[in-house]
């Protein structure tokens, strides 16, 4: 019953009209325009920013969902300058807060931050300002950034905040990455739970939550946990029309894989700035070294580098002194580089949400950019062994894997389907590998394979393994199926399948992520292993249908040129090609070019 009410309330939030908040006739409207120009040097608000600003200044609780780079920070930074008191910003990462503080300082906006690293004196000053009954001192601190840990662990701080509230100086509580409140999401952080107390402690202070990823289910959960059921929800469309999505085959030989990436960076992406995401710190280090050996200018970025090094590499990248950062997901939140032209995933992400966010870090300037996912079967098990302990971990991983192997369906449609509850956009405009190659007669159409027989064969092999008390990894299973590897694992008189091993892998993966087979995880002293066993779906003869996908070659840039001129003009001097102005959208050729900039 409670669930039903939550849902009803949510539907109410959805109905709160977005146009209603769009006008500029509020008492603060003139002020907003002026501050936008004078403090932020911005001419025009983007899609949904005005609505969000108006609603939070009207003291409504609200959640604003918009893609990375959409400009969510402005929706609490600007109102902080309109109101007389203080805006509290809860943010998950110190580096993220430092970035924001840095840019606020440059603009002359008084902001402070409180973290485990704050000195005693600094902490005291902040408490004093919070507790000061007069408004005059809030000029020294319009925004205060804190981590959720700080809030949940420091009684002293909460006491100061309560005084601030009782002096009517706590204007709003902004919560960045608000999806972290919910265990249903992909990125739950226990300390965010504490934020559930805010509405009780500070009933008159509006909450403004922002996030780049939250499904309907997660949004309902956030409303419930924060006690803001039925609050306003604004969505900016998630589609990034200027991003070209592509999956490529990841060579199984490491050397070949490094060569492939080096080739991409020195040819296709010559003179262009990018990010390469890897699975682990070790991969980051190895890949960096291998690319350096191949004369590609890259630097690593991960949590184990010391802060000075990280900051140095980050700035070298920002200034285009290096071509790409090879990074773990530690490189992410708060990056603000507009002209990133490519993101390569050396290993897939652990969820579609993560992948969407990471790949979304390119093309923020609205111009053509590419997301390349390198896929091979072995990576699937790296991801599943890491995530299976998380709630929904496997489910999330399997959605990601499905994206990787499903090259029959428009990548955008796959995103849309995955995020269906908050975003629906079918118009791809040939900006993904599947759509691009759809009518390309030179591309060999993948065969349609009846996999029932194959499934039976695999089950037989698994039966035999079970009877001999042997555990089979996916690789061993595949080997046995193709009559390779350990003899004892093979089934006598079973001929190898009459298909390419490439399809064999895809069939196996397909059967796993669709519950025909199942991964069975076992810990060893050093690692977790995934073994394949029979899945929960009963084997029947008729209900398995499989359209194997073929991973397409990257299309020639000249072809894409008809959509996005100039992308291939890298033959001009290097310096110049690093310049933003070099990647222009063709004027009015495609409707996306008009509104890609404001995400509307
Ligand atoms: P998000 O948090 O949504 O990922 P940010 O708040 O970090 O995005 O903003 C990304 C960049 O966009 C920042 O450089 C910011 O200054 C810029 N920005 C925000 N709003 C606008 C706007 N209306 N016009 C131009 N630039 C903007
Ligand atoms: Mg942000
Ligand atoms: Zn498409």
Automatic annotation (TrEMBL):
Keywords: ATP-binding, Coiled coil, DNA-binding, Helicase, Hydrolase, Isomerase, Metal-binding, Nucleotide-binding, Nucleus
Annotated GO biological process: double-strand break repair via homologous recombination
Reactions performed catalytically: ATP + H2O = ADP + phosphate + H(+); Couples ATP hydrolysis with the unwinding of duplex DNA by translocating in the 3'-5' direction
EC number(s) stated in the UniProt entry for this protein: 5.6.2.4
Biased composition (Basic and acidic residues): 588-598
Keyword Coiled coil: yes
Subcellular localization, as worded in the UniProt entry: Nucleus
Cellular component GO terms held in the UniProt record: chromosome; cytoplasm; nucleus
Gene Ontology MF terms: 3'-5' DNA helicase activity; ATP binding; DNA binding; four-way junction helicase activity; hydrolase activity; metal ion binding
Entry keyword annotation includes ATP-binding: yes
Domain Helicase ATP-binding: 53-232
Enzyme class: isomerase
Domain Helicase C-terminal intervals: 260-409
Family: Belongs to the helicase family. RecQ subfamily.
UniProt name for this protein: ATP-dependent DNA helicase
Species the sequence originates in: Chironomus riparius
């Amino acid at each position: 019953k409670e669930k039903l009410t939550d849902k009803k309330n949510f539907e109410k939030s959805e109905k709160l009209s977005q146009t209603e908040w769009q006008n500029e006739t509020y008492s603060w409207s003139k002020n907003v325009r002026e501050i936008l120009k004078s403090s932020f040097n911005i001419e025009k608000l983007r899609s949904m920013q005005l609505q969000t600003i108006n609603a939070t200044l009207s003291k409504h609780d609200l959640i604003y969902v918009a893609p990375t780079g959409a400009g969510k920070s402005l929706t609490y930074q600007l109102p902080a300058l309109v109101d007389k008191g203080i805006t509290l910003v809860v943010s998950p990462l110190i580096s993220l807060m430092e970035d924001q503080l840095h840019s606020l300082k440059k603009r002359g906006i008084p902001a402070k931050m409180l973290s485990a690293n704050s000195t005693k004196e600094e902490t005291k000053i902040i408490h004093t300002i919070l507790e000061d009954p007069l408004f005059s001192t809030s000029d020294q601190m319009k925004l205060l950034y804190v981590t959720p840990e700080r809030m949940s662990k420091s009684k002293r701080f909460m006491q100061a905040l309560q005084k601030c509230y009782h002096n009517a100086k706590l204007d709003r509580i902004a919560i960045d990455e608000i999806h972290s409140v919910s265990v249903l999401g992909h990125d739950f952080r226990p300390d965010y739970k504490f934020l559930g107390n805010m509405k009780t402690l500070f009933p008159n202070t509006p909450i403004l939550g922002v996030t780049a990823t939250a499904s309907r289910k997660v949004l309902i959960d956030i409303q419930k946990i924060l006690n803001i059921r039925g609050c306003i929800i604004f969505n900016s469309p998630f589609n990034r029309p200027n991003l070209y999505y592509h999956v490529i085959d990841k060579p199984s030989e490491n050397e070949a894989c490094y060569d492939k990436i080096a080739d991409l960076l020195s040819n296709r992406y010559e003179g262009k700035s990018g990010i390469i995401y890897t699975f682990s710190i070790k991969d980051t280090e190895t890949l960096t070294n291998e690319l350096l050996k191949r004369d590609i200018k890259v630097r690593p970025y991960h949590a184990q580098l010391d802060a000075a090094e990280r900051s140095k590499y980050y700035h070298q990248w920002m200034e285009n002194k290096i071509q790409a950062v090879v990074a773990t997901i530690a490189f992410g939140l708060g990056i603000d580089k507009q002209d990133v032209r490519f993101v390569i995933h050396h290993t897939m992400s652990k969820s579609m949400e993560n992948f969407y966010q990471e790949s979304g870090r390119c093309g923020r300037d609205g111009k053509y950019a590419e997301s390349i996912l390198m896929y091979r079967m072995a990576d699937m098990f790296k991801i599943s062994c890491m995530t299976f302990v998380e709630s929904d971990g496997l489910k999330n991983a399997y959605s990601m894997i499905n994206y990787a192997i499903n090259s029959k369906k428009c990548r955008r449609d796959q995103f849309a389907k995955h995020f269906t509850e908050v975003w629906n956009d079918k118009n791809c405009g040939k900006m993904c590998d599947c759509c691009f190659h759809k009518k390309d007669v030179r591309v060999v159409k993948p065969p349609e394979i009846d996999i029932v027989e194959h499934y039976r064969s695999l089950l037989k092999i698994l039966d035999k393994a079970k009877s001999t008390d042997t555990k089979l990894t996916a690789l061993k299973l595949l080997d046995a199926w193709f009559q390779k590897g350990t003899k004892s694992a093979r089934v006598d008189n079973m001929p190898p399948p009459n298909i390419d091993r490439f399809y064999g892998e895809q069939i196996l993966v397909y059967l796993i992520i669709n519950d025909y087979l199942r991964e069975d995880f076992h810990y060893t002293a050093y690692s977790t292993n995934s073994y394949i066993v029979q899945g929960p779906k009963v084997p029947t003869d008729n209900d398995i249908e499989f359209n194997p996908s073929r991973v397409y070659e990257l299309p020639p840039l000249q072809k894409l040129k008809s959509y996005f001129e100039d992308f291939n003009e890298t033959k001009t001097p290097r310096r110049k090609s690093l310049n933003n102005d070099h990647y222009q959208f063709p004027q009015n050729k495609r409707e996306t070019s008009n509104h890609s900039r404001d995400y509307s």
